[in-house]
């Protein structure tokens, strides 16, 4: 059994991406894909993800809206807190959706830039 450790932001082409979707499509800029990173040991799994927007570029993270010409930078953060507020739950599956579904979702990845609603969603695995 495997769990999701993180979601990597990849520029260019990616055959391993979630749903094969360029999440920056229609905004200009780079082709941006989300690629799940797996781990076998539950204790290293993520317990959730969040969207962070900033007017300041984070040089240690990959911007999911890279090259779109807008002022905001967008980052997806993985959270780890076994035994924490989420009861030590471990993420088992992730997908992109235009609706909030599953056992958890980020905020709209396109928030404040128009375009379709797009969420990173997940389910937990025991």
Automatic annotation (TrEMBL):
This is Uncharacterized protein.
């Amino acid at each position: 059994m495997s769990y999701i450790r993180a979601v990597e932001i990849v520029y260019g082409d990616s055959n391993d991406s979630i749903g094969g979707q360029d999440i920056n499509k229609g905004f200009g800029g780079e082709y941006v894909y989300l690629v799940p990173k797996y781990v076998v040991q539950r204790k290293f799994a993520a317990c959730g993800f969040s969207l962070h927007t900033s007017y300041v570029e984070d040089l240690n993270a990959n911007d999911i809206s890279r090259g779109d010409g807008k002022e905001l930078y967008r980052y997806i953060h993985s959270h780890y807190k076994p035994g924490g507020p989420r009861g030590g739950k471990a993420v088992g599956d992730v997908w992109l959706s235009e609706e909030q579904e599953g056992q958890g979702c980020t905020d709209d990845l396109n928030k404040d830039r128009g375009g379709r609603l797009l969420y990173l969603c997940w389910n937990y695995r025991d």
